[in-house]
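## retry 2 of 3
previous attempt timed out at serialization; input unchanged, resubmitting
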Amino acid sequence: MMFRQAALLSSFGLLVLAPLPAVAGTVRAVSPSPASAAAGQTVTVTVSGTNPCGAANVNWGDGTAITYAITGLPSTHSHAYAGAGHYSIVARGMGNCDGEATANVEVAGPPAPPVPPNQPAPSAPRAPTSAAAVTRVSFTPAAVTARQAVTIVVDGQGTCAFVVEFGDGNKQDFNTTLPARVTHTFGAAGEYRVIVGPVAPCTGKFTETLVVQPRGGAAIRGIDISPFPAIVREGVTFKVLGSGTCSYRVDFGDGNNEERSKPLPDSVAHVYSAADTYTVTVTAVAPCSGSTRRPLTVLPPGGH
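## retry succeeded, writing output
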């Protein structure tokens, strides 16, 4: 459990506070549009809920599941179904976001070709003879730093051949009984798309986003404001200083705030509508750490 600590005034005039207790967002609903579509037609889902939320996993119900890196809810994502069917879409919060929501979509296939005269109707397709499938991909530990080994857990059933693309230019082939565990080390901090692609007859392709933090962890270390002082109705740029990919909340002091999940340093803009002195606060969301606060004077038009 984290506690508040006394504020310290640095030599740069920044008031640095200890991290506040972690706040987690929650996925509460997922809404497909359209709810009935044709095979090959794009279906768009809107994932909604409460923030902060830096990632959402959408399992489209046809063997495709993707973790999307987002800046907050609501977020929209699109997918096209190859064949007809009744699909259950499941959206889950990831990272600093939890919760789960489910919705259904009906997909109709193209009409069957006409049967030539005196020809028997085509027989129904046979069910696959193999039940081998990848059903889930996860990472252990969930918070990874550069040059630290991470285990990619490939859940499923049956004997499955699959290829893992790690997103850093490396890939590896496997042929084993599921579930399986794959170990890899990322040499540098960054955001990587890890793809687990099964080889037929095994099914269930997954694309997951893994954020690798720099050694020492992601942290907010200060804020630069430009121009300083600011002018009413003129743009102000806030540059959040630090390292790693960080989810954080910036409170502009005028009743407005914004939640972001970006690699640091990160810049965000804001416009003030009234002259006054405001306190700008930036607070990290775990596992990112750090908090900073700085006063900002906003002058009337003309700067007087």
